[in-house]
Amino acid sequence: MTKIYTALGTMSGTSLDGIDFSIIQTDGENHLSLAGNNYLEFSNNLKQKIRSIKRKITSTNECKKIIKGDEYKELSNEITMIHQEGIRQIVGYGGARPIDVIGFHGITLWHKPADRYTHQIGNVQLLKKSIVKFKNLKNTEIIFNFRENDILNGGQGAPLTPIYHKALMKHLKIEKAFICDSDVL
Q: Residue 119 pLDDT more than 70?
């Protein structure tokens, strides 16, 4: 019998409206079940802070400079603690189900595959420290910075997309993938 893992994924999109949290149980191959969802909306103040810092980034070099500043560090910590609050809401402080892994995406500030560079704001060390007080997360692995390794290996920074598409095709019993031009439809 293969092990069933419980994973909690966090994701925020370019709309900057908030963070989605989903818990799934999977063996990575055949078993997949949804175990919970949560959504935490960003305040207007936080949305403004994120948009403000994103507007200052006009190039990869500019991004590299900005991420060294105090404004960035404060925003990174604020975003991280909002993730921590959403995690607390979905798993509680000591629920019956331990979480094996958390996927912490952060928020993309700059994404330039042509430069082989991407940066997601979020402080994984702070998140690790802040969740150890949750009984069911003491031994949980946190995965962060998904995009960077994909880009460094020639990808576009979406390493989970091909895996998801393969699983979706299997679930829908699609044998052969194809792309259709929207003008044809």
A: yes
